[in-house]
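Translate sequence into structure tokens.
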Amino acid sequence: MKPAAQPVVSHRATLLALSLVAVVAVGLYVNTLGNDFTNWDDGMIYSNYRIRSLDGDTLRKIFTYWRGSTYQPVRELSYAIDFHFWRLNPLGYHISNILFYVLTCVMVFFTMRTLSSHLREGIQGSSHFRTALLGSLVFAVHPVHVEAVTWLAARKEVLQGFFFFTAFYLYLRGRETEGLHTRIYFVLSLLSILLATLSKPSAVVFPGVILVYELARSQGRWVDFVKKRWLFLALSICISLLFTFILVQVMWDAGGVKPYRGGTFWTNFLMSFFAFVHNIKLLVGTINYSASYAIDVPKPLFGLRTLWILGITFLFFAMSFWSFRRRRVVFFSFLFFFVTLLPYLNIVPTSTILADRYLFIASFSYCFLLGVGFDRLCEFRLTKFSEGFPKLLAMTLFLFLLVGYSLMTIRQNTIWQNSLTLWADTVEKSPRSNTANALMGVVCMDLGMDQEAAKYLERAVEILPYDYQSRNNLGIVYGRSGEPEKALREFAVAMRLRPDDDTIKINLSVFYQRQEEYENAERVLKHLIAKNPSQANLYFRLGLVYRDMGRNEAALSELLKARDLAPRIINVYEELGNIYLSRFHDIEKAKFYYSQGVEAIPNTNPRSEQLRWIVHDLEIHR
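Result follows.
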């Protein structure tokens, strides 16, 4: 097959275009550099001890699948690299997110330019260049990407985006070459899609994107191409099937697969149509973005509004198939959007139906169509107007859209400043969102506002009764608020919903300890230790129980076990020093353990500095 004509544009113009895209992307997100971690980042970064080192053992753990956790090792490796240079300073993590977003936008430019030249044959090269520049600029500024760039735990999106579009671009280039060059392009494409899938498993849709492209590019001749490139397609499908299996396994083990919405497969299937239409609205017709959304579903589900949603979906696919022979760009863009959104349509029910980050890859099609549309308007000729009028109109509309999206993006970045600003905004915009209420409840718990926390957490479990994490948190809040019966009830429900979650049982033991029911707390912890004898935190918690019981020797014994298992945890040394100082009045032993605590963690840590002053005071008053 004869290669499609490439854009005849100088390398200098391409470099200037890429520089413009990069400057715009960085400029829009520079106001995120002062943002803090949010409580959505805790599990992935702040409390993730697998990222604290880059030695061989840590790398092995990062690339090993652990039951009950997500399997996104490339994302976790990127956090480990960040931690090596920045420790827990969020500035470095934000810089990395912005860097990967810029790289994604660069690959979007190259992919759009190549796609335009392949799907719009017979058009001059400058048109393909303009399409790519305008489309990639829209991609760079679109506010639906804020969550993927600003939320640090969403690093998976920008990593997947960079590798996904790199893989697609390499495929497009390899398809138009022969011999050794083809093999090199295809091998690099397979490597890129593997890295994309290891960043986020939803990249398993890549073979579907290739099929959509081949249908648009070759139309009636695509079967011949499949026969010619069967090895590449077979390998990409194998990668897809393998990681689809891993994705389902991860979701199942982590409790990510939820009951059917509405109670049956068919009601849940209808919900997928609602999710699809709401995603279109989120991409094209939304001005107030949020960290969480609640889709308003009519009850009963079968009604006029459902028919309206089905009608919009039918129209979408009717336009797709109508454009198959007439507008290849439209056909490709519509089906690209559908294929890349497919993992997020809740055909397999999950807790989150709608999210900005789900559109990160899919939004490419919308931006590509806008790039093509503005380019065609620039070339349009009107007899009643001057030759330059359509170009002026196109650039005016484009700049209006670009400025509008940019202002929305900058504003949305400030909402992600910290946990309080994020969830206060989200609850205001989506008061019926389980996620918003659950995490606003956690923020209130951290601030000691237990009455407010209970209000949000109660609303969260009202919306989603099987939210075991909110029930666990309610147990903590009720226990701290002097409502033991309510606390025990919530802990019991949480354990029934999630019987293998030891965190709930640990919180139950803390509740018993607060209620001075020490035997119950001891019983729970000993049961957990028998199941997990290598968990230092369990011995630490048991040591605190024995301390409160006045069993000082037993407390010291358990704390020393915790120290041996986790020698770099400062809390253990602090409690050992406290017991020797307050219970045994042994100043030398207390100084010894306080000093070990100082050595256990970096000197810049506030806790380390506090222990240093305690040792200093003991020296003075000895």
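Note: Residues 51 and 80 are 4 Å apart (CA to CA).
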